[in-house]
Amino acid sequence: DARTAFHELKKILTTDLILGLPDDTLQFKIQSDASVDGIGAVLLQITLNGDRSLAYMSKKLTKTQTNWLTIEQECYAIVQAIDKWDKYLRGHEFILETDHEPLVNLPNK
């Protein structure tokens, strides 16, 4: 049943094999995205063996938020992720990755 599958997936995603513990000596990275009805992000750290997932977040958008422009939804995803993981990011430079082209090119304007 769907509930059993969900709990099994949740158990797998939260094991040490998947989620790492934060290491202040490594650089943090956030990957975020928005869709028509929700936002999501992952907090990672860059290691010699590749990116290591530390935490995930997702949030359903309200009816009002679903009417926002795509760029506003994408920015909202970024702000929510930074706010959620502030205790890890504060005082550290971090990489932010988004696939929303207008935001990717924003620093170049």
TrEMBL record:
Molecular-function GO term, any one: catalytic activity
Keywords noted in UniProt: Multifunctional enzyme
Positions of the Reverse transcriptase/retrotransposon-derived protein RNase H-like domain: 2-95
Key word Iron-sulfur present: no
A Pfam family per the record: RT_RNaseH_2
CDD domains, per the entry: RNase_HI_RT_Ty3 (cd09274)
Taxonomic superkingdom: Eukaryota
PANTHER family in UniProt: PROTEIN CBG26694, PROTEIN NYNRIN-LIKE
Protein name: Reverse transcriptase/retrotransposon-derived protein RNase H-like domain-containing protein
